[in-house]
Amino acid sequence: MRFDLVDLQLFIAVADSGSITHGALRAHLALASASARIKGLEAALGVALVKRRRRGIELTAAGESLRDHARLIMHNVDMMRGDLAAYASGVRASVHLLANTSGLSEHLPKALAGFLREHPDISLDVEERESTDIVAAIASGAADLGFAAEHAVPENFERFLFSEDRLMLVAPRRGDFANRRGIDFTEVTDRDFVGLTNSTALQVHIAKHAARLGVRLRVRARLRDFDAICQMVGAGVGIAVVPEAAARRCARSMPITHLTIHDAWANRKLVICARSFATLPRPAKLLVDHLRKAAR
């Protein structure tokens, strides 16, 4: 079933005027064309929409329903036209930012919220990717700006440090690691884990380093956010690897402890990167300036 916007506009005009003749005038159509379009709508829908009277028309129940839906559709079309016109004229703009899991969940939200408050005419399209995929997308021109682990960023990219992201092991407060402050990852590869879903960049990062040790982690449960993971850990389901900020935050309200992972891959510097900050579109430059100020 397909609807022509001209048909919907015509039907609204006919319904509001109570006449096909007057509705055709409002829609700038010939009477014969307008009448044929109304009959075409009825044939397509398989139901009568109007009752033809000597002095105009009367809507059937189906016609009243179509009128209400048509008004809503045309209102949304008008809003869409206005929004797109604003983009075309440069009044509004959108920035596409790629970020890894830690960036999206722990480091960027506050800074991005501040940027959106300061720039109500700029929208953000933030997409989660693994750091290596972020770099590849920027290099190919599929994205302008990225938030990634510095080790994945090539030398010819410009970047600045936004924050450090130490990954920590989270374990039950009264478990085997209660009195430990640090650990080598090889000591826990045979344990039950609670992890993120397989599609998240951080989970891919952890799985890759486990594979380099010749092991595949035994993940008992996969969840979509760090708070839920830490709750599972506190309930004794397993241990987990999460960013330090999440570990410390959750430890304040959950029965968990956190240990420093000694392996080098667990200490990451997170950077904002681009092929060239100077050649970015103006909205992206504004975001870069804001993130520089928010960097810690």
Short description:
The chain has 296 residues and is α/β, with parallel strands linked by helices.
What does this protein structure show overall?
With about 300 residues, the protein is of the alpha/beta class. The protein has three domains: about 5-90, Orthogonal Bundle (Arc Repressor Mutant, subunit A); about 95-160 and about 270-295, D-Maltodextrin-Binding Protein, domain 2, CATH 3.40.190; about 165-265, D-Maltodextrin-Binding Protein, domain 2 (3-Layer(aba) Sandwich), CATH 3.40.190.10. Helix content is about 45%, strand content about 25%. The protein contains eleven helices and twelve strands. It has helices spanning about 5-15, 20-25, 30-45, 60-90, 100-105, 110-120, 130-140, 200-210, 225-235, 245-250, 280-295, and strands at about 50-55, 55-60, 95-100, 120-130, 145-150, 160-170, 180-185, 190-195, 220-225, 240-245, 255-260, 265-275. The strands form three sheets. Strands 3, 4, 5, 6, 7, 10, 11 and 12 form an eight-stranded mixed β-sheet that branches. The protein has a two-stranded antiparallel sheet with strand order 1-2. The chain has a two-stranded parallel ribbon with strand order 8-9. α8 (about 200-210) links the parallel β8 and β9. The model has no long low-confidence stretch (mean pLDDT about 90).
Characteristics:
Arc Repressor Mutant, subunit A; D-Maltodextrin-Binding Protein, domain 2; eight-stranded mixed sheet; single chain; two-stranded antiparallel ribbon; 296 residues; 11 helices; elongated; 3 domains; alpha/beta
